[in-house]
Each structure stands twice: as structure tokens, then as C-alpha cells.
Amino acid sequence: MFITESSNSLQRRPSIKQKHRLNKRANTWLIPLLISALFLSHYFGLLPHKLAFAQESSFTVAKREDFPGGQKIPMWDANDGTFLYCGDEFNHHAAQPGATGQIMNPRSYAKLTSPGGSRGGSYTEEQLRAIDYIIYHGSVAHKSQDVYGYTDWKARAITQFALWGVMRGEIHTLASSIPQAELHKPVEQLYADAMRYAHESQDGPEKGAAQFFVPDNDEQVLFFFGKQSGALRITKRSLFEAITNKNENYTLEGAEYGIFADAECTQSLGTMKLDSTGSASLSGLPVGTLYIKELTAPRGYLLDQTIHTISINNQEESILEVTDTPAGDFNLHITKHDFINNAQEKYPGSSLAQGDASLEGAQFKIRYLGSTNETSREWIFSTDKQGVISFEEKYKVSGDNLFSLDNKPWLPLGYYTVEEIKAPEGYQLPSNSLQTWKLSYSEGNLSWTNLTQGKERAESHASLVFNDEVIQGEVRIKKIGHDTLTSSKGYSELDPLPSLKGAKIELVNVSSQSIFYKGKWIAPNEAVTTIETNENGEAKVEELPYGTYSLKEISAPTGYAINSEWNPTISIRDNTVIEAPELQDERIAIQTMLLDSNGTKNPQYSKDLQLIDHIKYEGLTPGEEYEITGELYETKQIQNGPAKPIAKGNVHFKATSSTGEVACPFTVNSTNIEGKDVTAYETISKNGKIVASHTNAHSSEQTLHIKERHKTLPTTADNHFLFPISLALVGCFSFLVSHTIRIKRCKPNK
């Protein structure tokens, strides 16, 4: 495909055929006109700020090799180690080692090759900006350079394929050609970032980064990171020219400036000394942001303390205008307060800011109107950590040069508007953020008068106070129960999940500063409040100031274990509701089974009957002490209402794990309960508080039937009854014998 614009750009620009016709017409008339204009400018100085930078006359391809991965995709190195990249996808005359040629700006190259082999194409301005971005952020000249986490040949591959994507106007069809699948994402990312830059940016350090190496005979043209330089011109004037002009005590000549690569002004790039007109120029400076500092002040002026920043563009002269001031003094401060700070008497002990909020970074726009309605000067200042602004350079964000002299701040008399345009972190702009002040002078005294809303209030000193309200938010907590104990054969069934009501949650201030909550100050790491969940397991805290807070469950509802691992940290950053992570408590549950000492459900009668209640538990805290209390009841009595236990059991134990089993024994006199059913109740307590129980009067697992005892006659083995029984038997036998004889005697003879 011929090198084209993106699809969006194609909708806005003429077709390729139209573009060729336009280029042909333009070349017919435009080139002679440009040559004439340049010739005239040489003599008449019509283009004083555009520099004619010479290009290197020689450049050599030193190395050509293919990317690893099996595909024959070339990469080139220049004789100075610079990486070279294919700049004309469809020009198949691949440059070979030893090839020499010319270096030129790709914006002036118009011999690109179409897919069909024809020549005469050029890049669009959008494509050129995208190419500048890729060359600037891609792999330049050493293997260790990182490109989206990749180095060596992979970084070069990412750079090359992103360039081809710009040439084609899209990146997706190139995916199959990328040597390794892992490179798809970084290639697409670099392409997307480059196109975003091309659409949105017109300037930056990327501008002009890409240069063209055009080998002899127009072989494969190659991109590289070109050497860039620009020039700087400094012009100086007096702040009050009407005072200083034609005054022998003042001259702008001799002011010397240092040019530095860093804001700390430790890396010197050269010096500049101003002439009698107050100007000087220096060429060959690196492209980018430079820092300009006055090293020597001219006669009659104080040293300019400002460190100026200037952007140096490739092959252009940048101009820095500076101003010296002769006289003045001012004492203007702006103070930012937390709204609560303004009520120290009512709420003593307030800090500068609440929670994670800060009084630093509030921005104020200040305009000097003089005696007219026209703005003479305008600045934007930012507060420091104490919430204070002073008319000094270190507080200025942007705007005009400050009035200053004798190393002291100075402001002329007149009207000033002071407007808070940006609240500091954690605060909201006040409803009336604009104030109008008048600076006047009378009898040797300065005074500031607040004219806002027609109310005049004179201040003996210049200290303007602005109060902001802290941002407040809401935290909501949702608690859920977790039932993990499964049914065991022979054991009682689990009771329904207990209520979620009653979980107590402590909210602690872990912000860097105190907060003001419910009429009192709460220091860092102090508890702000304790909230309790409702039946739905929900709780909330409202009106929390901007800050960071931790949550901790300090008491679980009955039937649940405290979730000691739940300790989330939440941050209030706006006036919205923050949903804390769900609080899930493990249920404390027990299952029971009542058996006799033989492990059966068929206890035999015994005067001192031994029964054992086997208890399985889950949800206890390992290492904690617990107490099991068992009570044995007659089943019919407890089913009909409250009853007294017929036996009790008690066991103390330490939980070695969250799950386990404990036996609770009973000793019961079964004399009065033979032939009856008995049922056991069980509770588990910690520190006197019941945490789990099983009290079901109809539980078959907890009920046993006590058999009746066997009733038998005395035996001869009992010596106490032996004689009476024997005597009775002899008597009975004698009576029968005598009675039989009597009957025979009384019968008549036949």
C-alpha cells in the first residue's frame, strides 16, 4: 500500500491522484517563488528568526542484519552506531553496508514508493508527527534501551513495525509479520500512542526527531534519530522604561546569562553577554527545555533571580524576553484555611488541614488593574504546605514577571482581583471565590481595602484569608454470614443462620493528619467511631472528611466468629459513597449426639447412669479458651415448657483449631426417670458470653430412652428367706396328707 494518511485523515484530504496534480502545479510555481523569497530574505532580512542549519554531507550504512525469529526483516546500523529504520516500505532496493548518501528532513522528501512501484509520494504532516514520536520514544542507538519493557532487537522490532503501521495507516494487518507474538501488544501500543500524539500535539521534544538518510541512487531510505540544534536570543528591557531610559545610571549592556541543561543550573551549556541594545544570541544549543539564569546584572539593576525556561526547537531561534526592575516593596500574603480553622475558639486544637487533605496547591489568579479596567499584569500562584502564598517566584505557577526591586517584592498602587481558581487537595472551592482589593498609600502607610460585595474593610497589613470546606464522603459496610459446617451422620441438624445484627465495627483514622468529626478532633491512629450492623448486616458512616481509614470488626454477632483478617483500608476522595469490602464472618456452629457410656442409643438402667454428649464445632478461634455447658432434661417436661435440669455437665477446653470435637459427660440418677425419655441441651461460651448453642427439645439426636429395670422373686440363695420358705413347704405338705386321709375315712363302705 502507498504511504497514506490514517483513515480519519483521508476523509478530510484530497485523493492521491488529486494530490499528485496539486503537487505538480505547486512544483511549477512554488519552487521558483520560494527560491526568490529566500534570495530576497538574505539581503533584506525578512526571515530573521529562521536559521539555515547545514546538514551532514556524509553518512554510511555500516551493518545490515535480519531480526531473529526466522523472518528476513532487515535492520541497519550507521557508522556511528545509530539505528536506522526502513522509511519507504515499498522501495525494495535495500541499503547495503557501505552505502553513503545525504541526510535530509523527511518533510522535504517526495519520492516515496507506492505498492505498484511508482515514485513521488510524501508523508502527511500527521504521519510525520507520528513518526517523530516513534523515533523519539523508540530504540535509538544502544541495545539496552527500553521500549515498553523490551530491549535489544525486540525494541528495534517494536520501533520498526510501529513505523510501518504509520506508513500504512493501520497496524492490525501487520500483526502476522511481527517476529514474536509477545511483541504484538507493545507494537500496537507504540502505534496508538504515536497517533494520539499526532492528533493532539503540535509541539514537544518529539518534534523534528526523525531524520531521513537517503542513500545514493535513492536506494532504501532510512529513518534515524537526527542531531538537533537551535538558537536562543535574549532581549532585556526595563520594567519601568520611562524611568530608566536615557539615564546614565542604568544600562542593559554587559548583562551576562548562563545557559543550563538542568533546573538546578549545574550543567552549563555556555554563557551570553548582552550588548548595548540589551540583546544577545547563541546557536548550536540542544533541542528541548533549557534554563536561563542571569549571572551578572547590568549596571544600575539588581540581579534577576528568576530562572527562566525556554523551549529550543530544531533549526529555529527561540526568543527569551526578560525584564529588570528598578525599585519597590510589597508585603502581600494570601492564606488558605480549613473552614474549621476559622473557629479556633469553638474547636481548639485544629490542624492546618484534615485527614489526607492539604492546604498546599491551592491556586489563585491575581490580576493587577492599576487605575483602569485593563489588566496590566496577571499571575497564578500556588500555596505552600502551610497554605500561604507570598509574592515570590517560588509560589508562581504561571503569568507575567513579578514587580520586584532591591530583592524585595513590590507592587504598584491600584486595584487587584484575587480569585481562587483551584482548591487544594481534599477541599472544595468556596461559593464566592473572587475578591476585589484596593492598594492605597497615605501618610507613609500602605493599606489594603476589601471592596468585595460593596463592603469595605481595611487591613493594616496585606494578609488575605480564604476558607475552604473539606470534602466529605460516606462509607457503607455489608456483612454476610458463612455457614460451612456440614451435616454429620447421627448428629443433630444445623440451626438456621443467626442474625447479622450486632456486628460492631471500629473505624480508625489512618490519615496523615487529624480529622474533625462530630464536634471533636481525632488524631491519626485514633478510633473515629464504632458502628453496628442492622438485621440486614448493613452499617454506614457519613460525613467522613477527606482521608484514609481502616476498618476492624471488634465484636461479631451471636453465633459468628470475629473475622480477624478483615481489616480493609478505604479512602475518601470525593463526595460519593465508598463501598467497603464485604465483611464475611465464619459461623460458630455445633452439632451434637447424645449416647450412653457404651456409645449406643440404648442405655440400660443404672442407679448412676453415665451419658456422654458428643459435640462437633466449627468457627472457634484457635488458642482461645471455651466452656461447654450441658443440661439434661426430661423430654416431656421440656417440651411442655420451662423445666429444671435433672443433670448438668461442664467442660473447659482450648481450641487447637477452628474445628474439632469435645465430649460432655453426664451422671444421672435414673431411679425417677426409668422408662422415660431424656434430652440434652448444649451451649459453648467464651468469657461468659454464649457463642453457639443447641437447645432443641425435639432433637432425636439429643434424646435417649431410659429402660425400666427387671423385677424378680427372692431366690434360695438368699439365707434370710431359706428357713421360712422351707417351713412353709413342710406345713403345706402335712396339711395335704392329713386332708387326704380324712376324706378316705369319711367315705361309706359299698
Question: What would you say this structure looks like, in words?
Answer:
The chain is α+β, with helices and mostly antiparallel strands. The protein has 5 domains: 7-22 and 49-225, no CATH class; 229-324, Immunoglobulin-like; 332-470, Immunoglobulins (Immunoglobulin-like); 472-585, Sandwich (Immunoglobulin-like), CATH 2.60.40; 589-705, Sandwich (Immunoglobulin-like), CATH 2.60.40. The strands form 12 sheets. The protein has a 7-stranded antiparallel β-sheet with strand order 20-18-17-23-25-26-27, with no helix packed on it. Strands 1-2-3-8-7-4 form a 6-stranded antiparallel β-sheet. Strands 41, 42, 44, 45 and 46 form a 5-stranded antiparallel β-sheet that branches. A hairpin with a 2-residue loop joins β25 and β26. α4 packs across α5. The chain is elongated. The termini are far apart.
Layout of strands and helices, then pairs:
Blueprint: H1 7-10, H2 16-44, E1 61-66, E2 74-78, E3 83-86, E4 101-104, E5 112-113, E6 119-121, H3 125-137, H4 152-168, H5 184-200, E7 210-215, E8 222-225, E9 229-238, H6 241-244, E10 256-260, E11 268-273, E12 279-286, E13 288-296, E14 307-312, E15 317-324, E16 332-338, E17 363-370, E18 377-382, E19 388-390, E20 396-399, E21 404-405, E22 408-409, E23 414-422, E24 427-428, E25 434-442, E26 445-450, E27 457-459, E28 462-470, E29 472-482, E30 504-509, E31 515-517, E32 520-522, E33 527-532, E34 538-545, E35 547-555, E36 569-572, E37 577-579, E38 583-586, E39 589-596, E40 608-618, E41 625-634, H7 635-640, E42 647-654, E43 659-669, E44 677-686, E45 689-694, E46 703-705, H8 722-745
Parallel strand pairs: 9-15, 16-28, 29-37, 29-38
Antiparallel strand pairs: 1-2, 2-3, 3-8, 4-7, 5-6, 7-8, 9-12, 10-11, 10-13, 13-14, 16-19, 17-18, 17-23, 18-20, 21-22, 23-25, 24-28, 25-26, 26-27, 29-34, 30-33, 30-35, 31-32, 35-36, 39-40, 40-43, 41-42, 41-44, 44-45, 44-46
